[in-house]
Design goal:
The complex is a heterotetramer, with 2 copies of chain A (about 130 residues) and 2 copies of chain C (about 325 residues). Chain A has about 130 residues and is of the alpha+beta class. In chain A, helix 1 runs antiparallel to helix 2 and helix 2 packs antiparallel against helix 4. The two termini of chain A are about 20 Å apart. Chain C is an alpha+beta fold. Chain C has 2 domains: about 90 residues, Methyltransferase, Methionine Synthase (B12-binding Domains), Chain A, domain 1; about 220 residues, Phosphatase 2c, domain 1 (4-Layer Sandwich), CATH 3.60.40.10. The chains are: A alpha+beta (about 130), C alpha+beta (about 325). Chains in contact: A-C, A-D, B-C, B-D, C-D. At the C-D interface, helix 1, helix 2, helix 3, helix 4 and helix 5 of C face helix 1, helix 2, helix 3, helix 4 and helix 5 of D. The complex binds manganese (II) ion (MN) (4 copies). The site of one manganese (II) ion has 8 residues of chain C, from strand 3. Chains A, B: It holds the Pfam family HATPase_c.
Chain lengths: ~130, ~130, ~325, ~325
Amino acid sequence: MKLKSSVDILSEWDIVAARQLGRNEAKEVGFGTVDQARITTAISELARNIYLYAGKGNIEIKQITQGNMQGLLVIASDQGPGISDVRKVMEDGYTTSGGLGAGLPGVKRLMDDFKIETIFGEGTTISATKWLR
Amino acid sequence: MKLKSSVDILSEWDIVAARQLGRNEAKEVGFGTVDQARITTAISELARNIYLYAGKGNIEIKQITQGNMQGLLVIASDQGPGISDVRKVMEDGYTTSGGLGAGLPGVKRLMDDFKIETIFGEGTTISATKWLR
Amino acid sequence: MPQEFKRQYKEILEQYTLRQTEHNLYEGQNFSRQLIQKNISPEEVISIHKASLEEIIPNLSADVSHSFDLLIEVMIRYGLALKEHQTLIKKQENFKMEMELASNVQQTLLKTKIPNMFGLDIGMISVPAQEMNGDYAYFLNDETSVGVAVADVIGKGIPAALCMSMIKYGMDSLTGAKTDPIVVLDVINRIVEKSVSDSMFISMFYGTYNTTRSEFTYASAGHEPPLFYCAKSERFTELQAKGLLLGVVPNVKYEQHSVVFDKEDFVVMMTDGVTECRSKEGFIEQQTVMDIIESVRDESAQAMVEYVYKKLEELQDFEQRDDFTLVIFKKI
Amino acid sequence: MPQEFKRQYKEILEQYTLRQTEHNLYEGQNFSRQLIQKNISPEEVISIHKASLEEIIPNLSADVSHSFDLLIEVMIRYGLALKEHQTLIKKQENFKMEMELASNVQQTLLKTKIPNMFGLDIGMISVPAQEMNGDYAYFLNDETSVGVAVADVIGKGIPAALCMSMIKYGMDSLTGAKTDPIVVLDVINRIVEKSVSDSMFISMFYGTYNTTRSEFTYASAGHEPPLFYCAKSERFTELQAKGLLLGVVPNVKYEQHSVVFDKEDFVVMMTDGVTECRSKEGFIEQQTVMDIIESVRDESAQAMVEYVYKKLEELQDFEQRDDFTLVIFKKI
Ligand SMILES: [Mn+2]
Ligand SMILES: [Mn+2]
Ligand SMILES: [Mn+2]
Ligand SMILES: [Mn+2]
């Protein structure tokens, strides 16, 4: 069982590769079709953000366990410009990312845990976990 | 072609009868499946309101034309208690009618025209029209 | 996937595939009400539908099965929008509670007492269009004089309400009811000009009534002119007084005029929320407002203002577009 | 049904039924973004799916076809919820614009200038948790004295902001920077007690620094005690002073104390938004706040307050729960 794997995001094709990786790992962990689609959508949004705003970066997928819980951790990192106003980006209906239910608030809703670390001018790392129920 | 028809609402079964009547007429006018379902849902809500809040009343369905437009007019009338605060009942998320997207604001959204006349203590008449596009 | 919903849905779907009756669709509709209430997302509904269909039609073609996976993928965003909606509804509810609280705070802050004067009957009503009032009426009085300020911030809602508090503190800093109207306007104008940005303007009327001389002295800062009713001639005249809106420039020359009241004469001070009432047919004519007032001239001043408000509310189809303030001084 | 969407969707679905690749699902996902933007409701999506499937699989079983009609019926309510969401979003946007305007009005109303004093370096930051600030900092000064008021309405948002304007007008009515802190608190307390309902309380600290004597005299109305930093001993002490919150009773006895500054000594005045910062792990310790402040003691007072804000914002994961105000007086 492969426990860690990652995809560099340099072109739009890599978004699909990251999705594929995420879906495979999600299947392996035992997530159902709907949760697979949710995890994949979250990865899609994160990869798309990297592609659109940072130019390049990386999506890492890790199968994780905590006590007797199993889950999937997605880490999206880039050395892009960083996010100057995290509060605003996490606000609903903030429409730069294409409206309804999209963007980082969407990722937060699709996953169970969500963490964002950003340094203006140095880059951003977003970690999001989905737990198997 | 039957141009006017109506159903008295006295029991929950009559809600289904009103829906059936509405769907038949909607089909006859030429509405597609989705619009048929919307008109039927609107009739359902109106009939349910009569059944729950006024006890009894009537749903009338009329095929109408205006210029070269064809449409379906639904008139729901009762001699119930009337609505004391129309502004409030038409407000979104006013939760007496069972939450999200339901109640009279829902009916208004499902149809094209919507009119409400109510006299406190004397009853309510709601007219809603859907036009064929 | 919530198993109980799956079981119920499968039953409805099974019935419906057997016989496409309205009754089955009605059950589906009622069921969807429950689904939404229990936060079942649309992508889960598709997933339930797929699983049910696979059980009902055992030899379902793989193509059909797969097609649902694409549909689930597409629905995920609809599910997100729905969740966003639930967050927003909660926010909206909190906001409503906050506005109610704010409106209470404002009422306490701006409260003013209608004075009891010998020989003068006073009536006052002030109703905001939204939760917060951008109109303001304030009374000052001593033994023989009663001063009244009626003001309107251009605009309504929260920004207007914030500005209004300024007028109150300005008025509090005045010494007494006898102060000349042009002095009052000058003081308040300086405060407003200093504290408020260039895009905020306030119109204000100030009048003071002397019960000994039955004389009403007044000045206006770009405010709606009051109506003076002469009981003898049974006619209204506008009390005109030139003067710039508050907050435009620090030094303004205001005009001061007076009028002497006979018994039963009265003055109607108001904001443009009264004169600019609109019905479906357009603005309500000044003559209409005058007729309404005149029809209740024999009532108490308070009964008069309340009647006028009720009448105009009706004429407007209960859609109040602006804050509404009306003050009547009637010699008795 | 919008024909163009139908055509595009059918193509994606056709590809997907042929080969179930991630790329096809990705296209479906991107397509759904467009659908939502163009206000295509979920019941329309099902209808598009049904029609596409019927074309792709010509001999699709009647059962499958019918099953979609039930699904459409179920989805209608989801579509309604989505439309409701769009209405609410528009409302929310209007409200945001109103709040932005209100926030500008408040900033103009409450603006205060940080004085330039000989021998004293002053830094100030005040950041509201929401649009409106329920914290307030205000400076008064003359040649040798600078007074500072730091206040916090219990609660935040619009109701708190309305109350805050009161403090400003109260402060404006004071004569000068030399006024004794206990006198200042007494004046403001009487104003607040008179104008505010029983459920609204305000905590306030007032301090005045004399540059000739390097002496800081202060009093507190139930406010967060400031931290005094002695550069020589490199230690913080709390400046305690007893006194009831503003607005509770009209007559309150406040305590007045003083402390003399040596060079590099400073005092940190703040609201509970600073001390009651919470991270996921619970409250942030006072020691942590002190360590953060001490780490930048050599910076200018303004750089200090800005650094502390940034650090605490980070520790709180950028979720500011309360209005945040910090003022530093540093002898140089
Ligand atoms: Mn106004
Ligand atoms: Mn107005
Ligand atoms: Mn506060
Ligand atoms: Mn606070």
